[in-house]
Amino acid sequence: MTKADLVNEIAVKTGLDKVMVQETIESFFKVVKNSVASGNNIYLRGFGTFEVKKRAPKVARNIRSNTSILVAEHYIPKFKPSKEFVDKVKNARKEQ
In terms of domains, do 35 and 49 share one? Predict the structure, then answer.
């Protein structure tokens, strides 16, 4: 499903204008990105958690030149689905 499909489906289910739904979704994404980028986690009960994960420094290999490269400590965004979300996906797959 693409963002456009998501906008269409929400607009049909809620009866709202597609432009308003798209602006709302874009605003949601912007808030999530800015909050996670500033180090704040977002907890959505029944859906999941957007959080910042710290990656430790490590030594990687450049296989082309066969050299070692030091990858510095860095942070990445992570999404962890809620138990309800995971159970819904598992049960939906079993029914098919």
Answer: no
Mean pLDDT of 77-83: 96
Q: What is the pTM of this model?
A: 0.77
* Whether 65 contacts 74, CB under 8 Å: no
Number of independent structural domains in the chain: 2
Host domain of residue 90: 41-96
Reported in sequence order, the residue ranges of 6-89 that DSSP labels E, i.e. its strands, are 42-44, 48-55, 58-62, 67-71, 74-81
pLDDT at position 96: 65
Q: Which helix (H) or strand (E) holds 60?
A: strand 58-62
Name which residue leads in pLDDT, 62 or 95. Answer: 62
Edge-to-edge strand ranges of the sheet holding 48-55: 42-44, 48-55, 74-81
Contact indicator for 52, 36 with CB cutoff of 8 Å: yes
